[in-house]
Amino acid sequence: MDTTVYRQEGDDEGLLAHPSTNLNVEKTIVRRIDWRLLPILGMLYALALIDRTNISIARVVGLDRDLDLGIGQRFSIVLAVYFIPYTLFQIPSNLLLNVVGPRKLLSFCVVGWGTAQLAMGFVPNWQSLAALRVVLGALEAGFLPSLVYLVSTWYTRHEVQTRLAIFYVIAIVLAGFSAFFAYALSLLSGVLGLAGWAWIFVIEGAITILFGVVAWFFLPGFPDHNEFLSTEETKIVLARVENDRGDSLPDQLTWEKFVAAFDWRVMAYSFMFLFGTISTYGVGFFVSLILRGLGWGVAESLLLSGPPFVFAGVSAIIFSRLSDHYQQRALFIAIQTLITILGWSMTGFAPSGGWRYVGLFLSNAGCSGTVIGILAYSSNNIVSHSKRAIVSAVIVSFGAIGGFVASYIFTENSAPRYLPGIIITIVTQVLLLMVLASTTWWFRKQNALAVRESMPEGFFYTL
């Protein structure tokens, strides 16, 4: 039976009426939402991460040699061109989400970039590979902010980070172990006349296309237009969000709202996310190359690249649960940033290869948890659907700039230690802590002001 809730003009009050319920009923509904949203979102984002970073694995198994990517800055160029359309199309893509709907837009994007990924298996030169990376960036643009935006519409503020962590952890763990799968695919070298690196692109691209088709049938919409909860259950979901932050129903985007969305707080979130993603992309793009530089062979480097991502997943879940439980964002972002600094310091300067490898565990765990925390921190301190759509896109677009920076600071000339890139990454983590301290101070000051002026119904910032 179709239980979609179609909102009529003037019907907001009826939808927001909170039916008589108890905590156990609410928990049951939230669990249903978890199972409907998080596995499919985690799988799709895993495919996005795999398809944008598997070029590094392909390079290790022969792409470098066949397309002459080791000459000059070619590899950095191929990595970096992805982020140009990825940055430019963030906001348009997120605004289109409300018009087209999550299922249609996201499914189209997944099938589209899967096709581009598959086509990479047949490129004759590095220029063609770079062109397809541009297409990949355009189609993946807006995907992460759309997922963050979608998740935030379903949950209360202090449920968001754990949910973001769950789908993000599913993604990074699968992406981490994709190196094993990619290595197995590379063993098909010579079959049908294709090189091993080509089989990585072809098979993984085909899998992405398949999941794009599956997403058409399983992706949920926004809470006020969903197809898996009853009308009464939908009212409970909307009322929970309304009681928490007062923006359960979409508002109309106007030019005034668009301009007003860009304030110093958004820039602060964006620069924090930029600094965090320099580290995550540094690990994602270069972990197998760093391991090669530590003395391991091709097979060992690919196999050893998986465990740091599992550790990062466990760490991110633990810190996210603590952050939601204690309703603190900045404190746990700061702790994980310090872990990132420690990890990169060990990888760059420890005397033995074993300790440098341990450093990759810490840096990956710290930065993975940090970017989740920043997304939750920003989402918690925004009110209204329209502003959330804009701000999430702006923040993630700065993450694309972080990826662009990482592409060029971990240079071919600095291999195998990549010390300049590691030093720059450490400096950016210090800058992240400085910006975080500034926002925390200002939010604390505004909350104290609201208390002094007796504003019981005012909006209080999440610290």
Automatic annotation (TrEMBL):
InterPro entries: MFS, MFS_dom, MFS_trans_sf
Main subcellular localisation: membrane
UniProt name for this protein: Major facilitator superfamily domain-containing protein
Species this protein is from: Roridomyces roridus
Membrane topology: Multi-pass membrane protein
Keywords from the named record: Membrane, Transmembrane, Transmembrane helix, Transport
Gene Ontology CC entries for this record: membrane
Subcellular location: Membrane
Transport found in the keyword field: yes
Limits of the Major facilitator superfamily (MFS) profile domain: 37-440
Keyword Transmembrane in annotation: yes
GO molecular function: transmembrane transporter activity
Regions that span the bilayer: 37-55, 75-93, 105-124, 130-152, 164-185, 197-219, 266-290, 302-319, 331-351, 357-377, 389-410, 422-443
